[in-house]
Design brief:
Distance between the termini: 39 Å
Helix content: 40-55%
Strand order of the largest sheet: 1-2-3-4-5-6
Oligomer: single chain
Number of helices: 6
Shape: globular
Order of helices and strands: EHEHEHEHEHEH
């Protein structure tokens, strides 16, 4: 199995722990979709432990898990050490401006992500500034989805200056 889609399932802490234990040593799964799975605090932390060591997952979808700033921080810490993910979907979470600032720090140094979906995270104009700052230093992202983030005129200006 190279693609595992468990989206829309709610495992709870126990189910997530079992899945993550398998993923820590799995060497065949390259695409993982855990979107809309209710991965909140503990589940997010368990998944992040996997991402710190797993070297086969290249496409990851964690969208629509209602992650807020705390989960965003834990997730971004894991991304700092991950060198294999090339496609990342974190859309439809609730990062907001503060979470976008955390993600900005990852984008400054990440050299593997080429496709990034950060749509529907409500980062607004303030978050746009942080994200654009991170992307100015990033040379690998070629596909970016920032739709539905309430960026307004100031956010639009930030993105236009980046382009």
């Amino acid at each position: 199995i190279t693609t595992l889609d468990v989206s829309g399932n709610t495992f709870g802490d126990d189910g997530c722990r079992w899945l993550c234990e398998v993923l820590k040593t799995n060497t065949t799964i390259t695409t993982l979709d855990v979107s809309n799975s209710g991965f909140e605090d503990e589940e997010c932390r368990a998944l992040c432990e996997v991402l710190k060591t797993n070297r086969t997952i290249t496409a990851l979808d964690v969208s629509n898990n209602e992650w807020e700033d705390g989960e965003c921080q834990v997730f971004c810490e894991a991304l700092k050490t991950n060198t294999t993910i090339t496609a990342l979907d974190v859309g439809s979470n609730e990062f907001g401006p503060k979470g976008s600032r955390t993600l900005c720090e990852v984008l400054k140094t990440n050299t593997t992500i080429t496709t990034l979906n950060i749509s529907r995270n409500g980062f607004g104009a303030d978050g746009s500034g942080w994200l654009c700052d991170g992307l100015k230093k990033n040379t690998t992202i070629t596909t970016l989805n920032i739709s539905n983030n309430e960026i307004g005129a100031n956010g639009c200006r930030e993105w236009c200056e980046l382009l």
